[in-house]
Amino acid sequence: MFSCCKSSKEPETERKIRANDPEYNAQFQYATRASRAETEANVDDKQRHRNDSKVNNRKAFVLRPGKGQLVEEKWSQVLVGDVVRLSSDDFVTADLLLLSTSEPNGLCYIETAELDGETNLKARQCLPETHDVLGNDPQLLSAFNGAVWCEPPNNNLSRFEGTLEWDHQSNSGDVEVTSNNISRASSSNNISRLALDNDKVLLRGCVLRNTQWAYGLVLFAGQDTKLMMNSGKTKFKRTSIDRLMNVLILGIVLFLVLMCLWCTIAAGIWETVTGHKFQSFMPWDSLIPEDATSGATVIAILIFFSYLIALNTVVPISLYVSVEIIRLLQSLLINWDEKMYYEEKDTPAKARTTTLNEELGQIEYIFSDKTGTLTQNIMTFNKCSIGGKMYGDPPVVIKTAATSDIDDMQSIDLSEDNPFFEPEFKFYDPVLLMDVKSGNQAVHEFFRVLALCHTVMPDHNRQDGKLVYQAQSPDEEALVSAARNFGFVFKERTPNTITTIEMGVEKKYELLCILDFNNVRKRMSVVVREDNNGSGSETAINIGYSCELLTDEMHDEFIVDASSYKDVEAQLGKYIEVIMQSQNGGGKMGAGKQVKGLLNKNNDKNLGSRNQLQGIRNKSFTFDDDILVPEDNEPGPSSAFALIIN
């Protein structure tokens, strides 16, 4: 497997890597080298050195050339161009191009807490071509021939652009990874050009979750990984105690110098007036001039250094050592503190540095960038309005009652005919449950929207067998959980389908398009089609988040379903203080073939990833007599899915 490269010491404009060729690729960064400890002079440096060694000695399974089998290697021995096998709960060794996984359609799930602090699962998907052909066969993976042309190493965690050129009809050859910004055309008719983006890449620092195995090709390793390029040099931090000690020591040294000067002046005066009359036998007698004044000056200078040596114990040098020992003991006490132990995740407190302990007691204000960073962000489904009818707790109760009083209220029983109900879910209005059971169409459509329009991931691999949702935001999880407890269970997701259980009946929807929430559209949308319905019609579902201020104060959050904005505002106006979170659901459009064709066109694999689905977030459509009409009257093929149903 082939590769060539410029020296890593120079700014890279192009890189070629011979996969599975350790000798040739020795010039590149290894998969680790987290940091180089310049010294081990103190406890913190030794701790960093131990952490680096721990990372370097992690194990990874690598396909070696000629063997066709997995070999266990240390992270420090994984090279750029290697094919690596990951198992569930493994840390990602380097920046990898995902080749195949154990999940259907090449999906895998990762946790990115080490990159962005988020503990929710995110989905990544390999190319269908590599997933279908390579699978879990080490022989095919070791014979994988392809060239990846991609961007040079950079620190952008949210973007990756590249192209895979692969002769999928050949089972032998070389894997080449080339790093530049220009796509290359292939001279072979058998070579396919497949666009790569950030969803095809696993970054170092992620953890593989809920996926039995996954194979990846190392693109960047060591200091070239995005994680390492985002980590700066370790800065030495001084605490307020350190700064105070420095000032005190400086003052004590000045006091010592003043005492020595006073003794020097006194000795000079005494030598001038009286001392020259005495005969003394000193080692420096030969240095003292015969003249009384000159002799007194020389003796005074010598006396200064004598007193400086005699009185140097005034300076408390041992204070620094004592403070360091105290800090070390405090760090151990922090690690052993049972009150800071998080039993749910078996996580104790950990003092990562011994130099900042006393700073904890100096904190007066804590500034957080968002809710949930330093606080527990809990979202619960308490009330909603569907078709002009309001359900849930009256806002007066929420406004005046204590939390304990609300907890003591009798919640409705949601366990009947619903094996997926959650005992911890509480809802206090039985009217909504009655309307669900009676088959109210508006209520059913409302909860169907909540079960379909989201990016939540189900976790089926728990030991207790329970269905648990992993969401990117707590409000999304709360909405899907509410639908689940009222009988509309989100069960499974693939790249092309969403499976739900609606009042005990399993249904599968074809997922045609997802438009993520953004600040321009202020809503998230999906286009789905019920499987095997034969109608060819799509349901456009939107969840919009509007920040319209309806009153002077805001503290409550609602979901509202109405036919117009005025109806929504009228309903919300009945509550004391609200933030509007509008949910517009369910519209039909007879454009099945058109939607399908446009999706296929926009997912053309020969297009670069930077050119796919551009402009889709800046378009909006309305319904005019059941006809889909763009607001700007300019139909665009890449925008036919951003639907706003008014």
UniProtKB/TrEMBL annotation:
Q: Which residues bind ATP?
A: D369, K370, T371, E476, F517
Name of the protein in question: Phospholipid-transporting ATPase
UniProt-listed Pfam families:
Cation_ATPase
**Chain residues that bind Mg(2+):** D369, T371
Q: Where are the transmembrane segments?
A: 247-270, 296-321
Write the record's keywords in alphabetical order, separated by commas. ATP-binding, Magnesium, Membrane, Metal-binding, Nucleotide-binding, Translocase, Transmembrane, Transmembrane helix
Write out the biased-composition intervals (Basic and acidic residues).
Answer: 7-21
Which InterPro entries does the record associate with it? ATPase_P-typ_cyto_dom_N, ATPase_P-typ_P_site, ATPase_P-typ_TM_dom_sf, ATPase_P-typ_transduc_dom_A_sf, P-type_ATPase_IV
Topology relative to the lipid bilayer, per the entry, is: Multi-pass membrane protein
Q: Where is the signal peptide?
A: none
- Catalytic positions are D369 (4-aspartylphosphate intermediate)
Its GO CC terms?
A: plasma membrane; trans-Golgi network
* Sequence similarity: Belongs to the cation transport ATPase (P-type) (TC 3.A.3) family. Type IV subfamily.
Where is this chain's protein located in or outside the cell?
A: Membrane
Q: Where is this region: Disordered?
A: 1-22
Q: What is one process in the GO biological process aspect for this record?
A: phospholipid translocation
GO molecular function list: ATP binding; ATPase-coupled intramembrane lipid transporter activity; magnesium ion binding
According to its UniProt record, which cofactors does this protein need? Mg(2+)
What's the catalysed reaction?
Answer: ATP + H2O + phospholipidSide 1 = ADP + phosphate + phospholipidSide 2
KW Disulfide bond (keyword) present: no
Enzyme class, top EC level, equals: translocase
Supply the PROSITE patterns for this chain: ATPASE_E1_E2 (PS00154)
Enzyme Commission code(s) on record: 7.6.2.1
